[in-house]
Predict the structure.
Amino acid sequence: MTDNATTPRPVSAPGSPARSRHGLRWLLALAFATIAVAVAVPFAPVESERVEVRWPEAGQSAESAVAMFMPYRPLRLDVTLACAAVAETPSGQDRTAFATIPPDADIAGDWGLSVVIRDRRLALIAGGTETPLGSPPGTDCRYRIHAENDELVVLVSGPAAGERELARIGTRVPHVTAFVTDLPAERATGAVSAVARADARFQTSPGPLKLILMLACGAGVLGCVVLAFRTFRGPSRPGGRSLPRRADIAWTGLVTVGIAGWGVLGPQTVDDGWFLGMHRNLGPSGFAGDYYMALNAAENPAVLLHHLFAPLFQLSWAPLVVRSPAMAAGVAMWLLLLGIVRLLRRHTTAPRVPTWLLAAAFFTAWMPHGVGLRPEPFVALCTAISGYAAVRARLTERPAWLLVAGVAAGVCFAVTSTGMLALIPLALGLVHACRHLPRARERFTLVALSGAAVAVAAPLVFLDSGIGGFLDSTGARYWYGAAQSWHGEFDRYQMLLGGVSDAFAFEQHPARRLPILLAVALLLVALALAPRRQPTHAFAGACGWPFAWFGLGLAALVVTPTKIASHFAALDFLIALVLALGLAALPRAFASENAGWAIRFSALFLVVLTTSLAWNGPNAWWGYHRLGMPALDEHLFDGALADPLTLLAIGTVFATVILLWHRHRGIGPRDPQPVTTRMAGWSALAIAGLSLLAMPVVTAGALGKAALNQHARDSWSPPAANLAALIGSTCGAADHVRLDDGTTLTQKIARTPGPVLVDWPISFWYPCARLPVLADGLVEPPTLMITAPGQHAHHGNLARSYGPFAGAFAGMGSVATYHEIPARLTGNPDPRAWGTLHEVRYRYPANRIDVHVSTVTRNGWHRGPGYATTDYIDKPPPNP
């Protein structure tokens, strides 16, 4: 059985028509029932934690205490103040009876709440306005301030006059970073207190009904897959040629070794520290929040990886250990690439893809961002599963494999928003299968079953939360995150091509540029050749599918919410396929299509243009991988490979050698074109192929040389930390940072009580630093702080800033001061190359509050008060 653009045979359907009709009805019923259950999952009740914070701590005096709420505004605040505390204040004195932010802080007047005593008269300051409350009606009464939703009410009550309202103000619940009073302790105790309901809206878990629905959905999906394979059986014996496995097994071993080596040597991706914060906070809080920014909003729907990684992180936080899931995903992706190539080799007459070329394409696409904690490698893996299943469904005439693609796509939705890419192979596979199924009822059944398979997303996306939590988290991350509209996609390409601020220089490395740009060039060449539709065309049939997947994938990325170039990594599997299949098929395509000088010289122009642009990028790196880097922020090889004339010369030399070799051995495709035309085509292939072979070597060489430079000066490097993890425990960079007293930062962390706040650009390399816990709507006050060095200092500081991204630790600025502790990285002449160590000193004691947690049942559509609004921190809406 072969597939080379001739019309495929009708795919197999159920045997007996009568039995088919009866069986298909049951299949349809199961598919629609599964979809209905999946739709119900987000609306099912959840168990929600209700957190009340009380001050002062039981049995303690009413003294000011740090209480940093996250999100900044609690859901509700109740303050009580005895009238006697106002009446007994000495005449002429001003006192702060109560405040939620230190009154001298910049944001206190606009965002906080203060109750001030001025000459025995009370005034309330909230929402930027001051409201006089007058003198107390006696000494045995009490003031009560209640803030909830968008209203603040002040009441006074006493045994004689009852309760009456003094003021009603339209303002939000105030920010809280501390409970502050400057009343003398003996007078404040028993006279002033506060109870706040913290905003812990994402600390939810499934209720009994939700658990039943999720299990039913999973069982329905499994049933659909099993019955689909029993119904759409395919040929009794698979066709195609048998293929040797020994060489593929050997190459798989070599690729696995390369992936493991890259786990040690490979660079940190930009957001490794960011995602590490989410992972590390999952256990204490019970949900995967944004941690450093966006008010620690839950990462719904991207929750699957956090839960999958949790058991692994119980073993170690060492960088090499936390990289292992991405390394395993790389091995799996390679096996699926090899599987698709073997399917094409076995069932079609498509050009043979040399395994060395497939390996080069894989490493070129995967290496720049393959061993990080970002979700894109796992999106690429889901897309690989979907692609493999779609190709197998077509070539083996078993459309039931499309349900495997559906499950992969459903799982991918729980990884991140770019998970939509896994739908593309499924959609094209369904179009092909439906065109060749003999009856409409079978086509309809197959589509319904595939939809039910995708429905596995519901119990994964809504594992802990309901639709209300999903909407809250989506709104917060859109308002305070890096989301952009569809036209922001142009900025993503600009980040790759250069000309942007230094903050995004790391996106412009040649290794990041080459795979995506060269894949686009090969896609355009394939499109120029494919419309001829000859039966023996090199890009015909299933061999052309990866090019369609890649083109549609580029279009799909336009509608994803975030616009940074790292998201191109979600296309890694498709890029690797396009690079390998394109370079393997073009020689035959040029010859079989009798492509003339216009097409071949155009192909040469595109390849020279894209490879020249790729090699033109600066040798820029993120974080500690800048340490010891040769030619840092400069062009590699002084820009020689970015010169089009140099590339043309190299391509011409190799093309000449190839043509002479073909002539001498009498091999190669029969090509009637003149030698100059053939030379143009082979020059394009030589330039592209040599770039694929060279880029992984150059990238690994630069990182290896950086590590050797650090070793020569007896200094630390990221690969050294990974190697240390292989033979024992390591605290990463902290082991090699020395304080003035001769101790290491590791020892300083060990003997200092409390957590350590490490800026997200570098936190990946401090596995022994316990990050502050964000849970129960509160921030655990850190005692030490490690800030990022150099150009990353700004990125790190965003977590301690209110705008523009609503940093989770912004409240520290009003209640703490930072005192630098001199320290330096061993063997490095720049004392701040590694960052800066600070001791965090608070104006008031921490841990002087009582936290009470209870559980309530809420509907799945319950939402908290909106905080994706202009007035929450005076942030304007994102650009439309």
User: Anything to note?
Assistant: Residues 17-40+207-267+298-704 form one domain. The chain has three domains: 17-40+207-267+298-704, 53-197, 732-848. The two ends are 52 Å apart (CA to CA).
